[in-house]
Amino acid sequence: MAIHEYDLVVIGGGINGSGIAADAAERGLKVALFEAKDFASATSSASSKLVHGGLRYLEHYEFRLVREALGEREVLLKKAPHLITPMRFRLPHRPHLRPAWMIRIGLFLYDHLAKRVTLPASCGIRFNPHTSALQSQIRKGFEYSDGWVDDSRLVVANLLHARELGADVYNYTPCVSASRENGQWLVTVQDERSGETSQVRAKALVNAGGPWVKSIFDEQLKLSSPRSIRMIQGSHILVPQIHKEKCAYILQNEDRRIVFVIPYLDKYSLIGTTDLEYKGDPRQVHINESEIEYLCNVVNKHFKHNIRREEIIWSYSGVRPLCEDESDSPQAITRDYTLELQDEHGAAPLVSVFGGKLTTFRKLSEAAVDKLRHYLHCGHCQSQKSILPGGDCDPEQLSSQLQSDYPFLSQANCRRIAHAYGSNASHWLDGAQKKEDLGQWFGEQLSQREVDYLVEHEWAMSTDDILWRRTKLGIITEQADVNALTDYLTKDVQGAHANVEPIARVG
Hints:
Glycerol-3-phosphate dehydrogenase, about 500 residues, DAO_C, FAD/NAD(P)-binding domain, FAD, 8-stranded mixed sheet, alpha+beta, FAD-dep_OxRdtase, D-Amino Acid Oxidase, Chain A, domain 2, Helicase, Ruva Protein, domain 3
């Protein structure tokens, strides 16, 4: 069987890998991407779900990173308006914080380091002790703008875009090995479903393994890694809504660490994050009792409504692979990224991604592919103006239109669908005139037709893929419905992939 040949192979299906694949495909390159598990199944689905400049990074004088992130915030709001929405953030001022005048200067910089078109400027605010959700002694603060994002769906949207442009995209297909051979890369991958091993050739390779970027050097490439990373655990908890306001809060504790309280899915508050050194398997990371206590204590020092451990509905943890910079504390480690380029006698280049943050993925992707232009003879970046699939709509208007067109769907479900899929919702909703037309239901909001769409078009294979990454319906889905979905997928996924041809079988 002939070995498939590509211009570029990307290892890693998180936000950086997906962005690089999309950028390269937009430039006309033939691209393949391989992810060991599901897309966004590690760091890229365990973020604080923010597109933000990083106000606290100003304290560490990371002006270039903040400027780039602020500029990208504007780009991404236009690139994926269904997945990324503006949000106002309130910063309560307490005695242990820097003087108010100093915070005003920081917010002035935040407003002006990059061109701001979409979002309103920062301002000072007063809290009414009788009506405010905050403790009555907190009387003043500040308000500024950033954005909220569905992180795992942003990854999928980039992969959909890459596939539309001709890229081949595979999840549950880990890279087994990659080596240089005759001026190219020979990459061996394994399909987890069938166990079959296949090979592809590529002119260039990108290591976007996130927390595994160094272990890919050690195990798959058998090369020495040019850099080290520090893995920092960040955990979040989800509780019933602490307040009714649509704004988020940014709380700075006495230890100078930041905790966000973010409105989530209209009836919850998402609280995080923590910063702990982590040494284990990134897939085994989980919140510990000290993190739960820490997050609850920070919230309870600020809000009238105190939260207890028993109120936690869901928690998640992720590992941020930050570039080693010898900082003393986890929160001081740079969130900037470094790209390392290596080749062999001017051929078979390898670009490796160390560090980075969700907000700057597009700029990182542009820089990564730019490093390969000399080798691949491709054009300039096009991603600044392109719209991701589903993004050619106003999600609020679409939500209202869905309620009108499909009155059997609840208002909450219409809103969820509009913000998850944008205009792509028509791919699986069109033609439905009653609830039964959408097939079997797995809970109040998830239909068989949506599940089929996710399996056939968005690479979903497992219950977790669907309930926690393609949607966030795992939060409200009862166990009986989870079991029914698992049974359905066992039959459906096996049938859907029974006739999939391997890439290029070894032997």
